[in-house]
Fold:
Amino acid sequence: MRRVVVTGLGTINGLGNNVNETFTKMINGENGIDFITYFDTTDFKVKLASEIKNLNLEDYLDKGEIRRLDRVTQYGLIAADEAIKDSNLTEFDPYRYGVFFTSGIGGLNTFYEEIEVAVTKGPNRVSPFFVPKTIINMTGGAISIKYGLKGPNIPVVSACAASTNAIGEAFRNIKHGYIDFAITGGAEASINQIGIAGFSAIKALNTTEDKNRASIPFDLERTGFVMGEGAAALVLEEYEHAKKRGAKIYAEIVGYGSTGDAHHMTAPDPEAEAIARAITLAADEAKINLDQIDYINAHGTSTILNDRTETFGIKKAFKDHAYKVNISSTKSMTGHALGAAGALESIAVIKALENNIVPPTINLNVSDPECDLNYTPNVAVKKELNYGLNMNLGFGGHNAVLIFKKGEL
Structure:
């Protein structure tokens, strides 16, 4: 069994267009949510989202990539490029370098645009890029092609737990010796008419026009999540190799747990048994007690059922320590980036460990008796951090948990 460390990070999201900008804004409690600008929301109840800002694609991608790729893949390439450059890994066997990059939905913008073309202009006008731009595996495929990575290329698709599962599967592939390196994470680009309409139809989205009362995880007045977008990427590497080449080690992945509720298409199991089990499985693999966890980045979507059930699951797993550990939901600032959320929030955990600071849950103002843990309300907390846990839950009953240890040579 080999140790696995994180040696590269990259992201683009509604809060920041790189890792340092994103984490600086997180610890300052800045809000990346605002009015939707991508389309006219006159006929929509939902007016707010966490869009990427000040983005000139030509600063990151060539014209061919912009033309051939859906926005979801463009975001994935931007985040992957930052992470790969950050890792400074230039010499490797391409068959020992895997790609575990995913999405919850894939190329939804292309899907919406090309169906409209088919309906209004006829089937012969549909773009030949329609299929390759929409399929979920294409972001990993584009990353593999661009960087010549020939190891396993597997998008783990599990809704909002997708990129957490992707990181976990990449971790296991390195740990058990199948590969030595991986680029992993997720991307999402669902802020469009059909994405907002679809999630509105199941009453999952918040409809307020006050951005500071929109994504309010664990607050009694929460009524739904706010759509986010973007991508986040991590380079994972076998520890001895990273140590030998003098790489910067951000953190070590020490545990991964994955379970299924087997309960409902969209609602979490109120008993939270599988959530608690995923947590304990990750701790068992990490060979630590749960009272050694210093920080939890919760899924914390700002929906009534998720936050209540997740809180219950944390209590079941952590017992008395549940009331002592710092918890936060950075979705209060980034919105919910669906399949990219787990990777983005894993970066938040890693940077928290590196800097000994817990990002806050902003705009948490009204206490909920059923959500009574320490969610680090409104202000970041400086404290010594050694172990951090990230957890994400997905429609279909997917639960995924990662445990990170502070990086050291």
Summary: The mean pLDDT is 97. DSSP finds 13 helices and 13 strands in the chain. The longest helix spans residues 71-87.
